[in-house]
Design a protein that fits this description.
globular, six-stranded antiparallel sheet, alpha+beta, 6 strands, 2 helices
Length: 145
Amino acid sequence: MRVPEPIAPFHHRLTAQTRFNDFDMFGHLNNGAYLQLLDLGKVKYFEAVNGKPVDWHKVTVVVVNINCSFYSPAYFDEPLEVLTACVKISEHSFVLEQRVVNPESGDTKCVGQTVMAGFDPATATGAPIPREWAESLKDFENWEE
């Protein structure tokens, strides 16, 4: 499969650290470890977007869908980065595109898309994306209205 072109430019990069137990018996980074790297990329992306650590006791968005396509294996001691960008925002959800890449070779290891939806913890139901989240995402991504 050919690696698809990015939907939007990536304004956030995170140097990824892998552990010995992230690798399978073939020396490849395990598929589940990629999802953990993407999750860490999301956390650091949100901290950069908001300019401060996220207060996870006041969660107002939740993951509702994750898709990940794998293109090239990653190996032990290979340098990796997680790239993250918000590529779409609507009233009730937004979509993040993420990639795990080797920053030296440019090789794309995987491409993931995550849909996150607004959530009201008091009622445990869906809700609109908080205005401050949407504005912060648009500002970080340099979107024009």
